[in-house]
Amino acid sequence: MDQLVPYIPLLLRGALVTVSLAVLALMLATALGAIAAAGRLAGGWIGQGVVLGYTSLVRGVPDLVLILLIYFGGQRLLNQIGSGLGWEYVDLSKFWAGVLSIGFIYGAYLTETFRGAYLTIPRGQVEAAKALGMRPLSVLWKISIPQLIRFALPGYANVWQVLVKSTAVVSVIGLEDLVGLANDAGKSVRQPFLFFMFVLLVYLLITWVSTTGFNWAERRYAVRSHAR
Amino acid sequence: MRVELVLENWQMFAEGVWMTLQLTGLSLLIGFCIALPAGIVRARRVPVLSPIINGYVYLFRGTPLLVQLYLVYYGLSQFEAVRESFAWPVLREAYWCALITFSLNSGAYATEIIRGAVETTPEGELEGARSLGLSPGQVTRLVLIPSALRRALPQYGNEVVFMLHGSVVASIITLQDILGAGRTLNARYYLAYEGFLTAAALYMSITLCLVLVFRGLERKYLAHLDIQAPKAKKMKFALR
Is B205 among the domain residues? Predict the structure, then answer.
């Protein structure tokens, strides 16, 4: 235990890297998921084909393989394009490679969450709004999206929980996140068990805090019954 | 893209595929053996046993597989007692560490799946079995388990794919699975992506095969449920 205490500030900095990576990746995934869900619902056959390719790719390939491909392959690709355009050498940072890969992966899962939530909204409501003379954009903004949030929240919470855990894999490309730092520090003081136990506890804490947060949000957006 | 290098080293990838399939298959098998009793106990809320299983499930589902693997592979060796015990020849090997971790991990996820299936078993099925004079043990063995396992099939199919994908972390502790082969190829010829692309293609084809197999199994074993719900789910797309 004595060996762990001096390293706690360092490990907490690592945890901050993990959490910020997860939050940025979730934001990217939300944007990608929303665009892809729109493409799937209203993109015609080209849009649907592109989205189907995207989701199948993500479902078929493990996260670590995609991360390595984006980090090493993406670096090469970026510089091949760059040298053609006369740029200087571009260095893809580990952090942003992680955000890009994880965001890309979980965007595919959110596509399905958003699409499912959209399809749960009763058709009659959109039709009624149109009949009242609302413009398409305000139908989307005032009728569809508020309900979409309500229906998508449980799935969204699930994606977040899985996303947080998958950030651990980014330490493989050398990112100094919670796992990477604990690995280095634990080996240097020859107490890897202690350090990894600490990592497990931090992940459980993140899981617990976010479960509480999402439960609150689900109650907040739940249907308020008029029956009472 | 230098395809010829991949083709020259096809044997390495074939061995990688075998390693991945072996690790995934064995972990799923052991995990299932843990999950079947654990899932039923968790559904029935047995005192003392259920809280222990809940803790196990919470720990393994709430934390990354990579960290669990590190804990077993690097962590356990720090203890003198482990290094001098009879289990050391096993725990020293990356292969066994991966197998133990993956089995426990898959067991935790499968426990939740089986618990869900047991809890949603229609009460009438069990009442019918009891009214025919079956003993409680017979009801569980002959009615509850077969019925619950059938309904767990779609989710279990997802778990199989996730275990396949989760097994990539084995390559981090030096095992030569599919990704391990890809990484070796890249390191040997100073390549950036050929090995990873090959690995991605291999994982994708195995996933596709698994999805097709489970679709066939579902058509066979869930046929009786389709009478009530003629529109079968077209695509499985869930997270674990």
Answer: no
Residue A1 forms contact with B (CB below 8 Å)? no
Measured between CA atoms, how close is B149 to chain A, in angstroms? 24
- What's the complex ipTM? 0.87
Does the residue B154 lie in any domain?
A: yes
| Beta carbons within 10 angstroms of residue A35's beta carbon | 16
Number of domains in chain B: 1
Answer positive or negative: Cα dihedral of B100, B103, B105, B107.
negative
CA distance B49 to chain A (A): 22
| pLDDT tens digits, B137-166 | 999 999 999 999 999 998 999 999 999 999
> What CATH code is carried by the domain that includes residue B158?
1.10.3720.10
Nearest by CB: A192 against B75, B193, B200: B75
In a domain, B141, yes or no: yes
B2 lies in some domain:
no
Q: Is some CB atom of chain A closer than 8 A to the CB atom of B144?
A: no
Q: What range defines the domain where residue B232 resides?
A: 18-178+214-239
* CA atoms of A51 and A56, how far apart (whole Å): 8
- What is the model's pTM? 0.89
Is B64:A168 a contact under the CB 8 Å cutoff? yes
CA distance B131 to chain A (A): 39
